[in-house]
Amino acid sequence: MHVDVNMLEWARAQFAMTALFHFFFVPFTLGMSFVVAFFETIYVKTGKEEWKNITQFWQLLFAINFALGLSTGIIHEFEFGTNWSTYSWVVGDLFGAPLAIEGIVAFFMEATFAAISFFGWKRVSKGVHLASSWLLAIGSNLSALWILIANGFMQHPSNEFGNFNIDTSRLEMVNFWKLIMQPVAQVKFLHVVSASYTLASVFVLGISAFYLLRKKHVEFAKKSAAVAAAFGLIASIFVAVIGDDHAYEVTNTQPTKIAAMEGLYVGEKGAPIVAIGIPKDVPALSVNSNDQTWAFKIELPHLLSILGKHGSDAYVPGLKDLIQGNPTYGIWPLSKLADIGAQAKADLLAYHAAKAKGDVAGMEAAKKDFYSVVWSGPDGLTLRKCDLIGYGYFKNVNNPDLIHPPVAPVFYAFHIMVALGFWFIILFIWAWFSVVKGSFENSALLQKLAVLSVPLPWIATSFGWMSAEIGRQPWTVFGVLPTAESVTPIALANVQATFFLFLVAFVILGIAELKILFTVVKHGPKGAQ
Amino acid sequence: MTWAPNTVDATHFYLQVYWWIIVAVLAGLFLLMTFVQGGQSLFHTAKDEMEERAITNSLGRKWELTFTTLVLFGGALYAAFPLFYSVSFGGAYWVWMLILFGFVLQAVSYEYMNKEGNLIGKGAYKFFLYFNGIVTMILIGAAIGTFFTGSNFSFDPVTKILQWGTASDGFNLRGLEAAIDFRHGAWFNLAFGVLLFAVARVLGGLWLINDIDNNEFPELIARIRSTIKKCFVVLLIALLIVLYGLITMNGYAYDIHTGKVTLEAGKYLHNLLSFGAIPLIVLLLGLVLFVWGVFVSAFGTSTKGIWYSGLGIVLIGIIVVVIAGLFGTPFYPSYADLQSSLTIQNASGSKYTLEVMAWVSVAVPFVLAYIIWVWYQMKKNGPITKEEIVDPESHAY
């Protein structure tokens, strides 16, 4: 059976749909688990019943969400096998190991202590209960760490921790420590968790403001808002700071992604950031000046070079340079990468042909060629033929624009995320000052803005995720494994059927969740005035 | 005993064996935890709202642990035997998709079932729990059955082309042939499915007898006891069919030095008798414990049966998985192309990965220890009572 393009797109859509549904619940869990632990800590310290009520109210909302997070998560894990079977075999060592570790060290912690935290209010001592709520939060966040280590590998599969084994035709782990300490994964983790704390804070602030606007549960709402404002202020500023580090990592490891994010077609020294704009998706080789590719734009000069390369006049390559090459800056053309990749692929096949015949000399020759160094950097980094084998499987050398992600969706997703990130900082600075001054209760405008902001962090986190993952295309493992080579060979109708099966289930359960949440919010916390 | 590795890397081989044993232990623990699914099939024994909520709350505090065990089971297979993850999930597509669908539905049901505004009504969520408790269990059993009867695939390790034999180019429900293709052991797979369901249902009943206050719910407990007894008959019949199949069928075998796969009469019986018949002895011990638990709690009045039967099923699960994959046995055989069969050697991750994961596995006893501690904390104040169910502060369902 052949892999048809249509099926590939459906498999991607199925995965994207599951990932997006799952990612509605993940950041809420990561953030709210800490918010609940904060409230409970205050309860245990003060011993006041009202803080217990506050804790239990937010915990109820958390638990309702938690269930659907698990539900969408399990299918997500197994979809790597069902729909991306080639991917799972080729990179299973590097990708499966962090997933298994997540299960052992993090997920069990999360699920086990959730049982005490949810159901143990009257069954265990206060201290054990509080510890369980904290362990639930830590377990959830550790889960995110391992998942993002796995994801970091997909974004930047360095040969320092992964090596293509010619015998098994797979990418295998060679250095576990370097895998877990990869900077891409570390900044990604910090960015995602702090964004999640921001999301939870906006949620608590917004619901509290909703009660204040209606003059209901006023004491409850003031106390909740105070905690949310402080947590949100710290978190939202941290998101931006670490987001800057993240952008630096992306610029230096995934040049096609950053170029698409910024709509940069022709590389520039002192490249700008387009603050607001309407980009066009055009064939990169037809572009001679970046001004051709915008319907409209407002630029912040030099900023991309400063943020991405830490130099105001540093050079940032554009999509055209990444396709046709730019000798001035040592950028190889796609054709050369594809050529080396094809040689690596030929070596691999020659090796196995020789192996089948028992031709030891032939095997050695093919192996030597396969691992030969084609580039060495000043800092000891090297690039071998085998590291570029993915380009040998890249089928569309004749349509080179398929080597980079589409510009418009990545640009919009990224820029809307950034804009919302700045709005959250403003919102929390404002909220924090008004809480400190004691005026939050009376500031109707701020309260209304807080209520209206409740859905926004979900948009921001989803768009962030989309810019990262669409931006990684056309690779599942950047530069190593093309998406088209990763998919399970299966007939289209099956993928479509499961797509709709899960879509219908998630939509119905998602609406049910929202209805339950709204009902709980409408009833409000018990015992509060 | 002929499987001391000479021509393969010894350390790699022993790591593969080690990881298969971990997979076996996880499978045993998962089987124990399916008391949640079995309990879900027992909702019909509740005759009023309060009885039903007693069942919901008892199971609702434990379902996440079953779920997590399944996730870890997937993760461990992914890291240690990635080719299985690739071939089986990508190949037997519909079996796994339907199994997962059952868990997707289950995950929300406890939390949403008795909440205001749940959109589709309590009945729908109860149906989801039944579906997960019955259909999902039978499908999991049938999927495990293929570890012995084989599947219809071929795989080329160099080109990585996976062919699933029966698959047409249209909508083809591939994977479900495990339960409908009687020329290739569907009878065995289905019996395995029914067995798994019956085991889960019996364990579920034993759990509820232990976890729900017997004095406050005497009629419910009596109904559960009588249901378990009937189910136990079904269990014994399914067990006999499975044991008959295991002992008489042509099993799959492979040479650990050359990797060549052959058919061998009585292979699984030979495996049980390997190592001085230790697998057989442990299997029988597990069966005795399991039956003893049923005897004291279903036929007698003890509430402790779940602990005996639970330990018994863990032992049985471990042995079933061990004989499916060790002693030169391909654990995921292909009847379409014998040489494509997956073994712990050809399906495993690299030596380095297994080494790293072996270090990580040191954490497993600690995880088990805190799970047991939490379990104890939640149970030390006695079983679930009416008072707790109606208490608004107990997050009761």
Helical proportion of chain A, percent range: 55-70%
Domain count of chain A, please report it. 3
- Which of globular, elongated, flat, extended, rod-shaped describes the shape of chain A? globular
Estimated structural class of chain B: mainly alpha
Low-confidence stretches of chain B: 1-6
The shape of chain B is: globular
Task: Describe the protein in words.
- The complex is a heterodimer of chains A (about 525) and B (about 400).
- Chain A is mainly alpha-helical.
- Chain A folds into 3 domains: about 5-255 and about 400-525, no CATH class; about 265-315, no CATH class; about 330-400.
- Chain A contains 17 helices and 10 strands.
- Chain A has helices at about 5-45, 50-80, 85-120, 125-155, 175-180, 185-215, 220-255, 255-260, 305-310, 320-325, 335-355, 360-370, 390, 405-435, 445-450, 455-470, 490-525, and strands at about 160-165, 170-175, 270, 275-280, 295-300, 315, 375, 380-385, 475, 480.
- A two-stranded antiparallel ribbon of chain A has the order 1-2. A two-stranded antiparallel sheet of chain A has the order 3-6.
- In chain A, a hairpin with a 3-residue loop joins strand 9 and strand 10.
- Chain B is mainly α.
- Chain B has one domain (about 10-395).
- Chain B has helices at about 10-35, 35-40, 50-60, 65-80, 80-90, 95-115, 120-150, 175-180, 185-210, 220-250, 265-300, 305-325, 350-360, 365-380, 385-390; strands spanning about 155, 160-165, 250-255, 260-265.
- Chain B has a two-stranded antiparallel ribbon. A two-stranded antiparallel sheet of chain B has the order 3-4.
- The longest helix of chain B has about 35 residues, at about 265-300.
- The radius of gyration of chain B is 22 Å and the shape is globular.
- Chains A and B meet through helix 2, helix 3, strand 2, helix 11 and helix 17 of A and helix 4, helix 5, helix 6, strand 2 and helix 13 of B.
